[in-house]
Each structure stands twice: as structure tokens, then as C-alpha cells.
Amino acid sequence: MDKTKISKKLSFMLRHCTAPLYIDLNGGWANIPEIITALKKDYPDMNMEILEEIVAEDNKGRYSFDDEHKRIRANQGHSIPGVVIIMDEPEPPEFLYHGTATRFLETIFKEGLKPMKRQYVHISNDLETAVEVGKRHGKPVVLIIKAKELAAAGHKLYRSSNGVWLTDAVPTEFFTVRYI
């Protein structure tokens, strides 16, 4: 059984699928029996044990179980309008990092960073993670975000349960570019 393929399908179901809508918009939670039943259509051997392995082995911490292991959710990355996930709002460090590809820079320089099809712009704690994210999209470049200044200017910065920082947008005056 290819757990990577299952994880990709699970990610789609919990972040982007609206027909059927598997998640409760209030918290982004989905009932595990319903998710397993849906996954069984493509993966007949799917069960709770495999789901727990996928969550435990996911190196990005994409998913969370509720305290009773009856529900699951994606920690961030939703494109479904109206999903509300309560997140921490800690004081950000001086700098955070956003990985992208050089081919997007012209638009980013004009418009700043925007969430595009997601609810939030995703920001990394460290340069290495941002470089890896940027590589997924082409020739990588990292935007060094002046996080403390961004927050001081009134922009909300959230931290999801897996440590990814999120914000509505990052205007151009709050980042510099580091070419890799």
C-alpha cells in the first residue's frame, strides 16, 4: 500500500474537497470513519492503523487527531472558504522565511505575498525549510520576512500546531530576497 498516495488523497479531502465536503468548517475536523470509508474506495485495505501511521510518519506534521482520535484535520493549507481553525498568535521572531520560485518574483514584487488559492500565506521558521519549499516550484528563492515589523504594523501572524507560520498577506516593504 502506497502511504504517500493515500496521504496526498487525504490532504486533498481535508483541505480542498467540497463535493462532498468532508470537514466541519468550524475547526476543519472530519469524522475518521467517514474518511476511512472514502479512502477505501481507492485503497480497500485502508484502516485506522494505516491512518495513524500516515499521521505519525508525516514529516511536515500536516495532520492532527482530536483528543479522542475520533476526528482528523489538516493543520493548515485549506482552500475551502470559511474554514476556521483556532491557532496560536505568539510573538514572532525577528525574521521568518518564505520559499518560492524565481518565476513568481515579478508578481510578488508588484503585489506582495498573497495566499493565492489558500486562506493564508505559509511562512517557515528556518531558511532550509523555505529553500525546500521553493524547490518544489522551480528555481528557488527565499523571501526573508521582517516578522516583528510586520506584526508591529498590525498584521496578524499565527502559528499552526505543526509550527508553520501563517498570515493574510505580506506587503513588499516587509521582505527582502535571498537568491539561492
Task: Describe what this molecule looks like in 3D.
The chain is α+β, with helices and mostly antiparallel strands. It has two domains: 3-74, RNA 2'-phosphotransferase, Tpt1/KptA family, N-terminal domain (Arc Repressor Mutant, subunit A); 95-179, ADP-ribosylation fold (Alpha-Beta Barrel), CATH 3.20.170.30. Helix content is 30%, strand content 20%. It is built from six helices and nine strands; from the N terminus they run H-E-H-H-E-E-E-H-E-H-E-H-E-E-E. It has helices at 3-15, 32-40, 48-57, 105-111, 127-135, 147-152; strands at 30-31, 63-65, 71-74, 95-101, 121-123, 140-146, 158-159, 165-167, 175-179. It has a three-stranded antiparallel beta sheet with strand order 1-3-2. Strands 4-6-9 form a three-stranded antiparallel beta sheet. It has a three-stranded antiparallel beta sheet with strand order 5-8-7, with no helix packed on it. The longest helix has 13 residues, at 3-15. The model has no long low-confidence stretch (mean pLDDT 96).
